[in-house]
Specification:
This protein has 406 residues and is an alpha+beta fold. The chain has one domain (3-88, 103-397): Chorismate synthase AroC (Chorismate synthase, AroC fold). 31% of the residues lie in helices and 17% in strands. It is built from eleven helices and 15 strands. The strands form five sheets. A five-stranded antiparallel β-sheet has the order 8-7-9-13-10. Strands 1-2-6-3 form a four-stranded antiparallel β-sheet, with helices on one face. Helix 1 packs across helix 6 (140-156), helix 1 runs antiparallel to helix 10 and helix 4 (116-123) packs across helix 5. It is globular, with a radius of gyration of 23 Å. The chain binds flavin mononucleotide and ligand EPS. The site of flavin mononucleotide has 20 residues, from helix 10.
């Protein structure tokens, strides 16, 4: 079983990510890890915090001479902003004499849509900073570090995870299923909104500018696409083994994600079956089909049938609500005075859909890595590769039987 836990407050000293269950013998590419962390910080519409942070993950354990040992990998991501928050975020009852930064007033006016009110009710905290510090999506940097290791494990098996943004507020590219894996893989890391279409991307930028000018915020939708998955990951035999369910939980757990789709997603509800299901045909001459000797002209199922991978690209969409901190705040109640009062204003993003897409890549990579280990599980990378080859040979033999002896 592959698992990870994170720790850390948004303006505390650091984030910690601990990953357990990776096989031994995986080469760790620290540049690729840094690239994933950087991609999460990019995207048009983010706030000033992203100019302060330059996320890097320091590997503290589990890796020696560039390779995993099979033991837990602990990683540390320091918050550069911490120096501005020591007076507010100190761990001791009193701020130490050397603490830097301003002493901030308690947060008492919950922001509709953030975790402030629900968290205060649950944990019985008067200052809602005690809630928002951990509810903050700052934590997703630690998820991306964990996901980066999973992604490197998958890449060693020639499985690749990419994403793109296809909707931002009212601007949309339309059906993401028409966008190819190759188009998504070609998106430049520095692209403003990680959209495959430059004209649509420009309209998205303008929508964000307009929202910012109005003191408002915007959400949107992204798609994660995975190429190279072996068929047979996940299972239909129990509810908690269905891979669609496991992926949906992982993506839905990202702050502000309110809906998840597989393949055609919610579109399946409004059209007949003939426009939903992917026919199974014999491959055209010269096209072997992927592994199974059959071909699927369409992939509306998004690579999953019965909660099991079918050898096609995995396609999963995530829908993000607009950021809940509005510079023109919504109505709220000051929980200290119990007077109606505009919601608190914190420094904030106007839009973070591209960042959420990168986090979703990490979460999807993690769930898939776990599913690969479950099916081909072993303690070393070489054993896993051998198990995958064996499974491929078995499927190949069944669907391409050798010609009978004359
Ligand atoms: C990458 C990313 C950045 C975010 N930035 C902000 C932000 O700057 N301000 C804010 O109010 N919410 C932001 N959010 C959303 C909140 O974290 C989220 O709405 C809150 O934790 C409540 O969780 P829920 O929306 O899932 O119910 C961000 C989310 C993500 C994924
Ligand atoms: C720090 C990150 O995102 C933060 C997520 C967030 C929230 O409420 O979720 C609020 C903002 O925090 P701050 O007030 O410090 O600017 C974002 O910047 C990050 O993505 O690394």
């Amino acid at each position: 079983m592959l698992r990870f836990l994170t720790a850390g407050e948004s303006h505390g000293q650091a984030l910690v990510s601990t990953v357990e269950g990776l096989p031994a013998g995986l080469a760790i590419d620290q540049d690729a890890l840094a690239r994933d962390l950087r991609r999460r910080q990019l995207g048009y519409g983010r706030g000033r915090r992203m100019q302060i942070e330059m996320d890097t993950a320091e590997i503290l354990s589990g890796v020696r001479k560039g390779h995993t040992l099979g033991s837990p990998v602990a990683m540390l991501i320091r918050n550069r902003d911490w120096k501005n928050w020591q007076q507010t975020m100190h761990v001791s009852p009193e701020a130490p004499a050397e603490a830097t930064g301003a002493r901030r007033a308690p947060v008492t006016r919950p922001r509709p849509g953030h975790a402030d009110l629900a968290g205060a009710l649950k944990y019985d905290r008067g200052d809602m900073r005690d809630i928002l510090e951990r509810a903050s999506a700052r934590e997703t940097a630690a998820r991306v570090a964990a996901g980066a290791l999973a992604r490197q494990f998958l890449a060693a098996l020639d499985i690749h995870v990419v994403s793109h943004v296809f909707t931002l507020g009212a601007v949309s590219l339309g059906d993401p299923l028409v966008v190819t894996y190759e188009q998504i893989a070609a998106i430049d890391d520095e692209a403003a909104l990680h959209c495959v279409d430059d004209t649509v991307q420009q309209q998205m930028i303008e929508a964000i500018d307009a929202a910012r000018a109005a003191g408002d915020t915007l959400g949107g939708a992204f798609e994660v696409v995975v190429r190279g998955l072996p068929p047979g990951l996940g299972s239909y035999v129990q509810w908690d083994r269905k891979l669609d369910g496991r992926l949906a939980q992982a993506v839905m757990s990202i702050p502000a994600i309110k809906a998840v789709g597989i393949g055609k997603g919610v579109g399946v509800a409004s059209v007949p079956g003939s426009q939903v299901h992917d026919e199974i045909v014999l491959p055209a001459a010269g096209d072997e089909g992927r592994i199974m000797g059959v071909s699927r002209p369409t992939n509306r199922a998004g690579g999953l049938e019965g909660g099991v991978t079918n050898g096609e690209d995995l396609r999963i969409t995530g829908y993000m609500k607009p950021i809940s901190t509005l510079m023109k705040p919504l109505r709220s109640v000051d929980l200290q005075t119990m007077q109606e009062s505009p919601a608190a204003i914190e420094r904030s993003d106007v839009c973070a859909v591209p960042a959420a897409a990168v986090v979703a890549e990490a979460m999807v990579a993690f769930v898939l890595a776990d599913a690969v280990l479950e099916r081909f599980g072993a303690d070393t990378l070489d054993d896993i590769k051998a198990a995958i080859s064996r499974a491929e040979a078995r499927v190949q033999q069944r669907f391409h039987p050798a010609p009978a002896e004359a």
